[in-house]
Design brief:
- The chain is an alpha+beta fold.
- The protein has nine helices and eleven strands.
- Strands 5, 6, 7, 8 and 11 form a five-stranded antiparallel β-sheet that branches. A two-stranded antiparallel sheet has the order 1-2. Strands 3-4 form a two-stranded antiparallel sheet.
- α3 crosses α4.
- The longest helix is centred in the first third of the chain and has 16 residues.
- The two termini are 32 Å apart.
- Bound molecules: protoporphyrin IX containing FE.
- Protoporphyrin IX containing FE (HEM) binds next to β5, α6, β8 and α8.
């Protein structure tokens, strides 16, 4: 896809335009072009970053000795969910929602109760059958480039090429700034009732839940639409055990909400849960995001997702479900959390063309002028090699 078209399709416009990125944008060609990503993980949090610094230093000495140079460094760290008694209980992202609950299960791995049915491994790992019953596209090298025989032969009749992709995957990295003040301001503005100011806080939480499709505790609206249930929110056996088919109008969980747009499950085509699920299962992501807070106070999410086909999975979800104004029968609504909503930096952008609708009976609530809360600050696509490919590359 041409870069300009891709930027538009992904909502990388205005303040999120690649020209303004910290890494991975067009001005980062040549000297600042990124060839390799090294991800280092340790236990503990950023306040105890001493251990990470030492760990990083050891790696830096090794890679600099081999001629590599750092282009960009990003710290990121899980944010704890804190209970009323001050103890920690799972993790959240910067807007305060519990995160990291929903993950597709892969065929052949342990299936946890309450999680969705297993998907074919080829949706995430190259070299295995995918949900179409096909092997994913894979990078290959001519057999003569692998004289040591480190790579497997491509699983295609009559081909002698070597399969560089087998057991590898593709990694999407996006640095997404979250405007937490604007988000809280928006909730406050639209939930204030001068005749019932004491009810403002509860109304705020309800609007926040309707925009996400889950209460900040993690409890899914599909299971508890009226009132938060923190016990449900943190229970991995129950907090992902829901569908949308029985809620075609989105009265429990709005069609527009982030979780319903990013994974419509069995509710994509009204009245056809089987076909809906089949389609949804072809656009899944293995998410491994980590919140970040930069020294200048900027905060957000290092969005990391693995998939076997970036166009059909990550880009499709962002473009066709999250940023699509016509998704779910709307005409001017995008994902209210992570969609490309009104950004004054986009020339000619009219706030009236951005809305969020909360279905209700007898009347729905419709808010126009929805600002953009999540801004792209950098990003790139990377090949994550399997062990054999790593040995081959190192040789
Ligand atoms: C800063 C931006 C974002 C925030 C704050 C955010 C937050 C969240 C939260 C709190 C959840 C619910 C937790 C869970 O189910 O594990 C969630 C789910 C999800 N998000 Fe995001 N997200 C962001 C960006 C994105 C992007 C860019 C994508 C993909 C293009 C995405 C795809 C998903 C998917 C697929 C789910 C699981 C939905 C489900 O299966 O129920 N998110 N997100």
């Amino acid at each position: 896809m041409a870069e300009e078209y891709r930027a538009r399709a992904l909502g990388d416009t205005g303040s999120s335009a690649p020209e303004k990125w910290q890494f991975g944008g067009p001005d980062a060609r040549g000297e600042r072009d990124i060839h390799l990503v090294l991800m280092l993980f340790t236990h503990g949090n950023l306040d105890q970053s001493g251990s990470m610094d030492a760990y990083h230093l050891r790696h830096r000495q090794r890679y600099e000795a081999h001629g590599l140079r750092e282009v960009f460094i990003q710290d990121a760290c899980l944010l704890p969910m804190v209970r009323d008694d001050g103890t920690e209980d799972g993790s959240r992202e910067a807007f305060g929602y519990r995160d990291g609950m929903t993950q597709p299960t892969l065929e052949g791995t342990h299936h946890k109760p309450g999680q969705s049915a297993p998907l074919k491994a080829g949706e995430f790992i190259l070299g295995y059958e995918n949900e179409y019953g096909q092997l994913p596209f894979t990078p290959v090298v001519p057999a003569e480039q692998d004289p040591q025989g480190l790579l497997p032969v491509l699983d295609v009749k009559g081909s002698s090429a070597k399969d560089l992709g087998r057991n590898g995957s593709y990694l999407v990295i996006r640095k997404l700034r979250q405007d937490v003040d604007a988000f809280e301001r928006f909730l406050s503005e639209h939930c204030h009732d001068p005749e019932d100011p004491e009810g403002d806080a509860a109304r705020k939480e309800l609007l926040a839940a309707k925009m996400m499709g889950r209460w900040r505790s993690g409890a899914p609206l599909s299971l508890c639409p009226e009132k938060d249930d923190p016990g449900l929110g943190k229970d991995p056996a129950r907090n992902n055990d829901f569908c949308f088919e029985s809620d075609p109008k989105g009265l429990r969980c709005p069609l527009n909400s982030h979780v319903r747009r990013s994974n419509p499950r069995d509710g994509l085509i009204p009245g056809d849960p089987k076909e809906s699920l089949k389609i949804s299962n072809r656009h899944q992501l293995l998410r491994r995001g980590r919140p970040y807070k930069d020294p200048d106070g900027e905060q957000g999410l290092m969005f990391l997702a693995l998939n076997a086909n970036i166009r059909r999975q990550f880009e499709f979800v962002q473009q066709t479900w999250m940023n699509n104004p016509k998704f779910g029968g709307h005409y001017d609504s995008r994902d209210p959390i992570a969609g490309d909503n009104h950004d004054p930096a986009v020339e000619g952008s009219d706030p009236k063309a951005y809305s969020v609708t909360i279905p209700g009976e007898p009347v729905r609530q419709r808010i126009t002028g929805l600002p953009r809360f999540v801004h792209t600050r950098g990003g790139g696509y990377f090949f994550l090699p399997g062990i054999q490919a790593l040995r081959f590359l190192a040789s």
